[in-house]
Design goal:
Number of helices: 4
Strand content: 25-35%
Number of domains: 2
Strand order of the largest sheet: 2-1-4-3
CATH architecture of the largest domain: 2-Layer Sandwich
Shape: rod-shaped
CATH superfamily of the largest domain: Translation initiation factor 3 (IF-3), C-terminal domain
Radius of gyration: 30 Å
Distance between the termini: 51 Å
Helix content: 25-40%
CATH topology of the largest domain: Translation Initiation Factor IF3
Amino acid sequence: MADKKKEPSNRINENILAKEVRLVGDNVEQGVYPIKQAISIAEYQGLDLVEISPNAVPPVCKIIDFQKFLYQQKKREKELKAKSTKIVVKEIRFGPQTDDHDYNFKLKHAQGFLKEGCKVKAFVFFKGRSILFKEQGEVLLLRFANDLEDIAKVDSLPTLEGKRMIIMLSPKKK
């Protein structure tokens, strides 16, 4: 299978379709030039004519080293990707009749998750006839949210989805 490389979005030199372009950048007198003259200026400097803004009238071009331009573009995209945060959701499962020891154990785990910056999805899972105890499940989740109110905010109140009653919590901003 042939390896498909992504074509660069910027046209260069002879691939620019416009009859005249607006030149910007260093070592160039800015202004509107016919395409042939702009290409000859770029060749004289030993650089490439790169179309920066193709939708402008006339298109904006810059005289730069195209490989260096691509490298800087990739570097910028990589930095943006690194800065974007990934939201992690941790789940904590309860039964409708979870006793105090188990509850406190899971509460400590949730506090740890929230301090790490993760969201917490707590849910009560109803097996068989335990669905009759919907109120107990709701009370348990509301108590859980109340115990975490100093470090978390409630994204959604307890809702019943099938055999699960779910509440979402996210860490409070400092």
